[in-house]
C-alpha cells in the first residue's frame, strides 16, 4: 500500500510569490491534514479536510488556504509569501472517520528568499 | 486548551542503555495518544498508539509506551538503545477535535557509541 506522497519535496520561492503544495493520501483515507514545522514554533496545525470539506482550521492568516478533491488528494496554497513562511510542510492522512492514527508524508521543504 | 508536554528537549544516552522519554497530556477525556519519530529532513513515522485497553502498548523498532491516566502520562521506553535510534521524538494527542493532533515540542535523542 503506497504511503502519503507530497510533491514537490523542495521549493525555493521569492517573497511575494505564491506557492501550491500537493498531497496524495493513502488509498481509502478521506481525511487530510496539514502542519507547518519550524525550529522555533514546532509542529503547528494548519487545517484538515474530510470529504472535500474543511473541518478544522488552525490559527494561520488567510494567506494559507487549502482544498481537497473528490479523490481525497489535497493542495495547500500560500499567497504573498513571507520569509517567515520558510518551513517544512507536512501532510498527513487518516482513515475513514479521520480520528485514527495519522500517517505523514515526507514533507515539502519551502524556502522563501 | 489542549496541550501536550514533553519536558525534555534533549536527551543523550549511550548505546545499549535504556531509554525513557516523558510525555504529559492535558485533555482528560478518552485520549488518543501517539508517539512519532522524525529523522532530519524527513516526515513523521508512527511508532505506536494508544486508544483504549491494555495500558502498555508495543510499537515498532522495539519501543513501548505506558499510559497512566492518574499521571496524565504516556512515556516512551526502550530497553536497549541503538545508534540508529538517534532522532527527534514527538508525543501527540488526538480525540478532542476530529482530524487534528496536538503535538509536544519534541525530544531530540542523541546516542553515544
Number of strands of chain A: 11
Helix content of chain A: under 10%
Major sheet description of chain B: 6 strands, mixed
Structural class of chain B: mainly beta
Give me the number of helical elements of chain B.
0
Q: Proportion of β residues of chain A?
A: over 45%
Account of the 3D structure:
The complex is a heterodimer of chains A (113) and B (113). Chain A is mostly beta strands and 113 residues long. Chain A is built from no helices and 11 strands. Chain B has 113 residues and is mainly beta. Chain B contains no helices and 12 strands. Classes of the chains: A mainly beta (113), B mainly beta (113). The interface between A and B is medium-sized, with 28 and 23 residues.
Fold blueprint:
The complex is a heterodimer of chains A (113) and B (113).
Chain A: E1 5-7, E2 10-13, E3 19-24, E4 31-38, E5 42-50, E6 53-57, E7 64-68, E8 74-78, E9 87-94, E10 103-104, E11 108-112
Parallel strand pairs in A: 2-11
Antiparallel strand pairs in A: 1-3, 3-8, 4-5, 4-9, 5-6, 7-8, 9-10, 9-11
Chain B: E1 4-5, E2 10-14, E3 19-21, E4 24-25, E5 32-38, E6 44-50, E7 56-58, E8 64-68, E9 73-78, E10 87-94, E11 102-103, E12 107-112
Parallel strand pairs in B: 2-12
Antiparallel strand pairs in B: 1-4, 3-9, 5-6, 5-10, 7-8, 8-9, 10-11, 10-12
Give me a quick take on this structure:
The complex is a heterodimer of chains A (113) and B (113). Chain A has 113 residues and is mostly beta strands.
